[in-house]
Structures are given as structure tokens and as C-alpha cells.
Amino acid sequence: MPLGGVRDFPYEQRTFGLNSGDVMLLMSDGFPELFNEENDLMDDERVRDSFLSAADLPAKKSLILW
Questions:
Q1: Strand, coil or helix: 48
Q2: What is the predicted pLDDT for the residue at 45?
Q3: pLDDT of residue 65 exceeding 60
Q4: Which one of 2, 28, 30, 64 is most buried, by most CB atoms within 10 A?
Q5: 41 bridge partner residues
Q6: pLDDT at 61 exceeding the cut of 80
Q7: SS3 letters across 29-45
Q8: Phi, psi at residue 41, to the nearest 5°?
């Protein structure tokens, strides 16, 4: 169910804490379908590889440009 797609949908709500050194990935559902200037598809494997390559970097250095 798309987030916000149905007004009264019973979304499951969870609360959790983040600790120093934890990493969180936030991305839209269209990110793996993104094409670069060479017309290469990002795809799930490249998303995973890009995330893993940036996971240990400080937040200011972890921006990934495709």
C-alpha cells in the first residue's frame, strides 16, 4: 500500500531508537528505476552496492550521485 494512498489504511506504527553508528536508508520506490546519463539502470543490486559503499562514511560524505 503506498504511504498516504488511502486515508484510513491501518498502517502499522513502530518506534525504535538509533544509536551512534547506526545507518538508515531512506529511498523512494522509483530509485532503483533511475537512469544515469549513460542510460544505465540503477537497479536493486546497484542500490545495495552504493548503500554498502557509503554506510561507513560520515553523513556529510555519504551522498551518492548516480
A1: helix
A2: 92
A3: no
A4: 64
A5: 35
A6: no
A7: CCHHHCECCCCCECHHH
A8: -80, 135
Buried b (16+ CB within 10 A) or exposed e, 27-44: eeeebeeeeeeeeeebee
Q: How far apart are CA 24 and CA 26, in angstroms?
A: 7
Cell representation of residue 37? 546519463
Q: For 14-38, what is the mean pLDDT?
A: 87
Whole-number Å distance between alpha carbons of 20 and 28: 25
What residues pair up with 35 in beta bridges, in sequence order?
Answer: 41
Q: How far from chain centre, in Å, is Cα 30?
A: 10
Q: Which of 54, 33, 36 is nearest to 44 (CA)?
A: 33
Report angle CA 51, 26, 60 to the nearest 5 degrees.
Answer: 65
Q: How many CB atoms lie within 10 A of CB 46?
A: 17
